[in-house]
Amino acid sequence: VQLQASGGGWVQPGGSLRLSCAASGFTSDHYAIGWFRRAPGTGRELIAAISSDDGSTDYADSVKGRFIISKDNVKKTVYLQMDNLKPEDTAVYYCGSAELPLRIHIISMRMIPFNSWGQGTLVTVSS
Questions:
Q1: Any idea of the CA torsion for 59, 65, 67, 72, to the nearest 10 degrees?
Q2: pLDDT at position 73, please?
Q3: Can you tell me the distance from the alpha carbon of 88 to that of 36, in angstroms, rounded to the nearest whole number?
Q4: Do residues 21 and 77 make contact, with C-beta atoms less than 8 angstroms apart?
Q5: 19 closest CA partner among 36, 31, 32, 2
Q6: Are 100 and 30 in contact (CB under 8 A)?
Q7: What is the C-alpha separation between 126 and 90, in angstroms, rounded?
Q8: Is residue 108 over pLDDT 90?
Q9: What is the mean pLDDT of residues 4-30?
């Protein structure tokens, strides 16, 4: 599986960005894609995930109500619309995937066995 994140950049607090994750190489129609981020000096944080099967989603509390994850199954691309960005959102954002033999319905993204990650894209929020 290959994953490529793009769309990062600099934005002022309160601004918006949309990230894209282009995926390829899946052997199953059942997969989940998650967005992760790593801020300077911190560990990896899973912030959003979506199922390819039914579009079910889950979000971390830190981004709930501000970020929206969506998908285009034809393009095998997942998007992360980020609104009302804050300085604490500054991080390298990257996507991960989990491919399963069964239909996926997300109740808690923390249960998803992500095992592939792509290169990240830097998001900087500052004035």
A1: 80
A2: 87
A3: 14
A4: yes
A5: 36
A6: yes
A7: 8
A8: yes
A9: 96
Strand pairing category for 116-117 and 44-51:
unpaired
Among all chains, which residue has been given the structure tokens 């990650």? Answer: 117
- Dihedral angle over CA of 111, 57, 79, 118, nearest 10: 0
Q: How high is the mean pLDDT of the chain?
A: 96
Q: In Å, how far are 16, 17, 45, 60 from 11, measured between CA atoms?
A: 7, 8, 21, 21
- Could you read off the pLDDT of 28-39 as tens digits, one per residue? 889 999 999 999
Q: Are 59 and 47 in contact (CB under 8 A)?
A: yes
Give the closest residue to 73 by CA, choosing from 97, 53, 93, 89: 53
pLDDT tens track for 38-81: 998 999 999 999 999 999 999 999 999 999 999 998 999 999 99
Calculate mean pLDDT across residues 101-121: 94
Q: Do the Cβ atoms of 118 and 2 come closer than 8 Å?
A: yes
